[in-house]
Amino acid sequence: MSQIITPYPIRRSRRLRRTEWIRDMVAENKISISDLIWPVFICDGLDRKEAIKSLPGIYRYSIDKVTEIAQDAVDLGINCIALFPYTPKHLKTPDCAEAWNPDNLVNRATRAIKKITPNLGIILDVALDPYNSDGHDGLIRGLEILNDETLIALEKQALAQANSGADILGPSDMMDGRVGVIRRALEANGLKDTLIMSYSAKFSSSFYGPFRDAVGASGSLSGDKKTYQIDCANSREAIRDAALDISEGADMVMVKPGLPYLDVCKAIKLELNVPTFAYQVSGEYAMIESASLNGFINKDLIMLETLLSFKRAGCDGVLTYFAPELAKLLTRK
Ligand code: PBG
Fold this sequence. Notes:
By secondary structure, the protein is an alpha/beta fold. Helix content is 38%, strand content 18%. The chain has 11 helices and 12 strands. The chain has helices at residues 20-26, 63-76, 105-116, 147-164, 178-188, 209-214, 236-248, 262-272, 282-293, 299-312, 323-332; strands at 36-43, 49-51, 59-62, 80-85, 121-126, 139-141, 144-146, 168-171, 195-202, 252-256, 276-280, 317-320. The strands form 2 sheets. It has an 8-stranded parallel β-barrel with strand order 1-4-5-8-9-10-11-12, surrounded by 9 helices. A two-stranded antiparallel ribbon has the order 6-7. The chain is globular, with a radius of gyration of 20 Å. The mean pLDDT is 96. The protein binds ligand PBG. Ligand PBG is lined by residues 125, 127, 129, 137, 172, 208, 211-212, 281-282.
């Protein structure tokens, strides 16, 4: 790239920063409500709104309430929500059968939401951890997370979710071959239009702590997820995994966590040229939220700045618990 560099005083960089309108005119990236995907937690029961200790301001909603949340999303101009279940303990088993129950929490919620707000996009996570008494994303024997046996379970789970009306499946389990298995199963079952947003670059991160609390998986998790999630030291491996997922039939890829992995977002976008998303995960939310509750930072400005940094790194959109607050902020602006 040729850069014309003229020295001071011919060039004064501050000329382009002097007023709000000129800054706006030359801004390289813009944020909009359509960049936002809102992750929402669901619980069993009726008329319930349960606080989550490690995620101040975030709640689990029963299905009757989550349809109201879906309506809020539509009213705010948010295109898509991602649903995560807090599965009752007695339904968590070593074979994870609740994952492909057509009447499990996420499948029932999806049908209920689609009845009322059919044009709101719904993403469902394909992974066994909310249904596994061991808390892992895959089936487990002894100390081993079983890859190929898990694929059979994920296929059943994905089909149940797509049949409930999920628009996008988000395989987040990190088993090898899952995207191909899911794509072939969808094609074979007349579900050719179901999208796959693969959690391709999902790192073995400590930023997921509050989420595991939110879905009730933290207590049951034995060990860590290092044998299937990506080592935090690696970015080239993440790009290879994303390329593999696209070749197996993913339409879009995701990087997770978000802010600490902007280099990975940028590399994937530049190398693969596919729709790329980041997940600003629970730990990132919790850090910003608790600093702002202490009055240490200006939350509104920090939310906007982090969203812009995702755009700068080339992301097409961001999954963020701040989605409704950001949508309100962006509407007011
Ligand atoms: C589970 C899953 C996780 C998240 C999304 N899907 C947690 C994990 O892998 O342990 C984390 C999201 C967040 O922290 O906000 N497959």
